[in-house]
UniProtKB/TrEMBL annotation:
<dbReference type="InterPro" id="IPR036610">
    <property type="entry name" value="PEBP-like_sf"/>
</dbReference>
<feature type="region of interest" description="Disordered">
    <location>
        <begin position="74"/>
        <end position="99"/>
    </location>
</feature>
<protein>
    <recommendedName>
        <fullName>YbhB/YbcL family Raf kinase inhibitor-like protein</fullName>
    </recommendedName>
</protein>
<comment type="similarity">
    <text>Belongs to the UPF0098 family.</text>
</comment>
<dbReference type="InterPro" id="IPR008914">
    <property type="entry name" value="PEBP"/>
</dbReference>
<dbReference type="Pfam" id="PF01161">
    <property type="entry name" value="PBP"/>
</dbReference>
<dbReference type="InterPro" id="IPR005247">
    <property type="entry name" value="YbhB_YbcL/LppC-like"/>
</dbReference>
Amino acid sequence: MAPDFMRLQLTSPDFGPEERLADAFTQSGENRTPRLEVTGIPQGTAELAIIVHDPDAPRPHGFTHWTLYGLPAQDGPIVPDEGRPGPNDAGGIGYTGPKPPSGHGVHHYFFFVYALSRPVAGAPSRLDFLDGYADAVLAVSRLVGTYSN
C-alpha cells in the first residue's frame, strides 16, 4: 500500500507553514519544543514517529534536530513524554532547537509525522529509521518552519 500523503495532517499552534519559528523554540532562546497536533491517522497505525530535520545545514545529510518514536496512534496533540526520544545530530537525545550558522540565510525545518504499521524498535537515528521502516509507513505529513541567525 502506498503512503497516504493527503489525509494525515500535522499542524502547530506555535507556527504555520513556512513561518519563522519563534526564538523560544531555538537555541537562541529557550530551546523549547513547539507544540504539534496530528489528525487523520489511518486505520492500522501501530504508532507515530516524529522527525525534525534541517536539509539546509552545511553537512552532507543536513542536520536532524529531533527523533521521537513510540507515540500513540491517536488524533490530537503530540505529547513528547508519551514517546521515546532518539538521537539528534548534536550528539544528544531528544529535541535540540535550530541554531543555523550566522549569515547562512534562511533554514527550513521539516517537522515530519509518520504513521507506522509496526512499532519502531529502540531509538534509531533518522537515517536508520528511514532505511529500516520505509515499508511500514502508512502515511506521512510535514510542517515546515523557518529560522535564520
